[in-house]
């Protein structure tokens, strides 16, 4: 598995397995078990996915040495703030059945994320988290957090895919040494992406699926990707991307698909802030 080196020297697999929108615990546990068996070592979950217990169960049953795994979870808006973040971290760790996390992310740039970051900096210094980062932080908020914090985020997990390539945001992350990670690497199926003529024609050249082309494109851009599937054959297929390389011509062609904005979520509206702040994950 190819890896990237984070700004603190920690190595992270460039391709992992995500479990967003797999809240049914038995299904999630089976999917993670299938992913681990296939060879994935990066597993990405979140408190707001309601499936940390299932991820933990699959990890335990796998028998894979802990040091070979890279486990990520995230702090939800409801648990923002210094004291709340520390409590939420302990809850997530217990649900996962782990002694430490490889990566802990602030899930959304809302509520008291500065207080959360202070707590996470302490947990990081204590060795309870190997790396800390953020998710959904656009360039202005990312730069502001960096300029007013001691520890620079190791990762920023953002929506990025062929239709929303985040070129300018990626430049800002590179400026500060923050690793870009893609959620929704397949655009959550938007714009009929799996039947896209350009991506399909590129795939045909290499005997690869559209999904494999997209993942290879992420990898060649240096973007960590965490595709999700509950189908074993697709889980295996998504990992089979190491035996071909997209040409420069392919990359230039895929660049033309960028529409420069999200069609999944707009973090800059009041409605989004209201909706996400209203999403409660516990009493």
Automatic annotation (TrEMBL):
Superkingdom of origin organism: Bacteria
Keyword flag Oxidoreductase: yes
Domain NADP-dependent oxidoreductase intervals: 27-255
GO molecular function (one): oxidoreductase activity
Enzyme Commission number(s): 1.1.1.-
Keywords linked to the UniProt accession: NADP, Oxidoreductase
Any Pfam family the entry gives: Aldo_ket_red
Coiled-coil residues: none
InterPro entries attached to this UniProt entry: AKR (IPR020471), Aldo/ket_reductase_CS (IPR018170), NAD(P)_OxRdtase_dom_sf (IPR036812), NADP_OxRdtase_dom (IPR023210)
Family, per entry: Belongs to the aldo/keto reductase family.
Protein name: Aldo/keto reductase
